[in-house]
Amino acid sequence: MGKVVINFFYRILYWYISKVDKSAEVTFMNYGYSKDNHEIQLEESDVIDRYSVQLYHHVANRIDLKGKDLLEVGCGRGGGLSYVNRYLSPKSATGIDLNKRAISFCRNHYENIAFFQGNAESLKFEDNSFDVVINVESSHRYNQIDKFISEVYRVLKPGGYFILTDFRFQNEIEKLNDQLTKSNFNLLRHELITPNVLEALKLSSAKREDIVHRLTPKIAHRYIKDFAGTEGSPTFKKFATNEFEYLLYILTK
C-alpha cells in the first residue's frame, strides 16, 4: 500500500474515530512493546493501554527528560505524549500532528501540553527550540524523510536528542540507515525491537479486536484489524516473518 493511500486511510480513520469514540477509548495508535511479559508500574487509568504505553516508556525513558523541552512529531491522539508528560516530568511538552481532528481531540482532552497542527517536513518552530524530539511509529508515512530529519535537527538545541522508532519493510532499512548516517546527527544507539513489538501484539490482540468490533462497521473489520495488527492479520504476519522490522534510533545534535 503506497503512502498516498495510507495517508488517505489515516484521514478517514481519524474522522471516523472522532465520530464514534465518545468515551475517548482510542488515544494510542501504535503496535506496543513488551519484553518477557514484564509490566511497568502504571496508574489504574493507564493499564488498559499498557502495551502502547510501554512502547513510549521504552523509547522516552532512554533520556532523562526532567527539566527538558520536549516535542513529539506525529503525536496522533496524544496518549503517548500525555504519558510521557505525566510520568517522566519534562519542563514542557509540545505535540504536532498533520491531522486537525487529532489535534482538536488532544486540545480537548489533555492539560499542560501545547498541541499544534503541522507538517513534519516543515516544522513551524524556531531554531534551537527543543532539548528532545521524539517520533513514534509515524515516519513510515512521510513522503520526504530527509526533510523531516533536517527539520528535527534545526529545531533541536545543540546537544539535543532525537529519538525515532518505527517499522520498515526489510528492504527499506538500508535506505533509512543511510539517510540518518548522512544527516548531521551522531548516532548513539540503534536497536531492533521487532520481537518485543510482536510480543505486545500477541498480548494486546484481544483488546484490539474488541475495539474494532465495537467501534467500526462489520464491513471494515478485516481492514482495520490488519491496520491494528491483530493476531493472524497480514500486518501481524509481516512482523512474525521479519518482513517488517521495528527499529529504534537515538541520535544527538
- Given the structure, what is the number of helices? 9
Mean pLDDT: 93
Based on the structure given, which CATH architecture is correct?
3-Layer(aba) Sandwich
Q: What is the C-level CATH assignment?
A: Alpha Beta
**Which residue ranges are poorly predicted, with pLDDT under 50 across at least 5 consecutive positions?**
none
Helix % is 40-55%
Which strand order spans the largest sheet, edge to edge or round the barrel?
Answer: 3-2-1-4-5-7-6
Instruction: State which percent range the strand residues make up.
Output: 15-25%
Quantity of strands, as a count: 7
Q: List SSEs in N-to-C order.
A: HHEHEHEEHEHEHHHE
- The rounded Rg comes to 17 Å
| Total domain units | 1
Can you summarize the main beta sheet? 7 strands, mixed
